[in-house]
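# step 3/5: fold
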Amino acid sequence: MMKKSISKIEVLFDNNKKTSGLYNIKDIDTTFNLNIITNTLEINEKSVIMEYELYIEDEKTGNFRIEIIKE
């Protein structure tokens, strides 16, 4: 049976701003500093759209887009 990994990510999305957060991997007792640059944050009655750049320990990991649609 595979061991379940426990981790926690705390981030704040603030449109057109750089924010910081933490990535805590509990089972190996490690924490990484995160920086998030939110390029788009759209919230309305039907959806939430976030486009952002993610940095872990000041190294860019990529550009991401999350879209949550309310049914």
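# step 4/5: annotate
Residues 18 and 37 are 4 Å apart (CA to CA).
# step 5/5: archive (pending)
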